[in-house]
């Protein structure tokens, strides 16, 4: 079967300290890092074994914190790119790490979901990191959280990046934040799909691929159907994909996060993002 696996190990630390993030400047102990590394090794063993079973996988690393400052994630991305049964590899990152190692990545399969955090890094430094990926023909999208204090920085970043690099803006939904019509218009000039991220979509009882073709895997092997529904639906290493996969209507009232709602068939977001749907990097429809 074809499946998308979001993977998140025990890591919960970051080299940045964004004020809106619970992992800012969190430091993981040696034990936690060793556990995270062991978990990723176990996951990679499982992934290798899926080729013989005929599965085709897309893998998305979405850590609590920054993964790419740890060698085991970089090595995993390189190795996954060489596996025939892996269709895509993507990672959420602040793009702070040195990027020489990216020469070894498979540009046909790898993409970066790079988030810009004004206040944590200089724009010039972030753009230069982006250009390193760009010049290596590696695919990436860039994004930022649409807090009002970041509007100017986001507009400036848009001007600094090549036109063909997509810049997304996450609608800031905490504190009952409401954008004015004028703000939405100007944010849409930067991200033409910004409005799609504003709603919390009504999802209860609706069809969703999460749990049938899309799985959220934790380092222990526990699997949940999505980022929001906390119910454990099984264990990757015990149940395998066939044992986990089941059509299930959504049990949550609303779905407001890109990594979740893109899997709701009724929203038809494949028609917007094309082949770059998973990694939030719109590609022309063929
Ligand atoms: S870069 Fe990401 S993980 Fe790190 S502190 Fe900022 S929001 Fe959190
Ligand atoms: S619609 Fe959203 S909340 Fe519901 S199952 Fe899908 S991803 Fe989860």
Question: How would you sum up this structure in a few lines?
Answer:
The chain has helices at residues 30-49, 71-81, 123-135, 151-160, 181-190, 194-197, 236-244, 258-261, 270-273, and strands at 2-8, 12-13, 56-61, 64-65, 86-93, 110-115, 139-145, 167-170, 201-202, 207-208, 214-218, 222-224, 232-235, 248-249, 254-255. With 286 residues, it is α/β, with parallel strands linked by helices. One iron/sulfur cluster (SF4) is lined by residues 203, 208, 210, 225-226, 228-229, 250, 252, 255, 260-261, 263-264.
Description:
With about 290 residues, the chain is of the alpha/beta class. The protein has a domain of about 190 residues. Helix content is about 30%, strand content about 20%. The strands form four sheets. Strands 8-7-6-5-3-1-11-12-13 form a nine-stranded mixed sheet. α1 packs parallel to α2. The protein is globular and about 50 Å long. The mean pLDDT is about 95. Bound molecules: iron/sulfur cluster (SF4) (2 copies). The site of one iron/sulfur cluster has 11 residues, from loops.
Task: Pick out its properties.
single chain; alpha/beta; nine-stranded mixed beta sheet; binds iron/sulfur cluster; 286 residues
């Amino acid at each position: 079967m074809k499946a998308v696996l979001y993977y998140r190990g025990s890591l919960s630390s970051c080299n940045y300290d964004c004020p809106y993030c619970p992992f800012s400047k969190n430091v993981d102990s040696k034990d936690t890092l060793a556990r995270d590394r062991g978990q990723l090794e176990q996951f990679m063993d499982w992934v290798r074994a899926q080729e013989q079973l005929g599965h085709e996988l897309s893998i998305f690393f979405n850590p609590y914190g920054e993964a790419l400052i740890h060698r085991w994630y970089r090595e995993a991305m390189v190795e996954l790119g060489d596996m025939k049964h892996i269709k895509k590899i993507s990672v959420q990152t602040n793009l702070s790490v040195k990027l020489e190692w990216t020469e070894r990545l498979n540009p046909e399969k790898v993409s970066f979901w790079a988030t810009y955090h004004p206040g944590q890094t200089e724009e010039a430094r972030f753009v230069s990191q982006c250009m390193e990926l760009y010049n290596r023909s590696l695919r990436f999208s860039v994004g930022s959280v649409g807090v009002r204090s970041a509007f100017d920085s986001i507009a400036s970043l848009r001007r600094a990046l090549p036109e063909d690099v997509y810049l997304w803006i996450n609608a800031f939904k905490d504190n009952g934040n409401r954008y004015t019509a004028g703000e939405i218009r100007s944010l849409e000039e930067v991200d033409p799909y910004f409005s799609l991220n504003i709603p919390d979509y009504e999802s209860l009882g609706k069809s969703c691929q999460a749990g049938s073709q899309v799985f959220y895997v934790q380092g222990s092997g526990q699997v949940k159907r999505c980022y929001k529904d906390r119910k454990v639906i099984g264990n990757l290493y015990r149940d395998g994909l066939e044992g986990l996969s089941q059509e299930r209507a959504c049990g949550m009232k609303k779905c407001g996060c890109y990594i979740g709602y893109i899997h709701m068939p009724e929203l038809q977001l494949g028609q917007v993002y094309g082949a770059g749907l998973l990694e939030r990097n719109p590609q022309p429809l063929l």
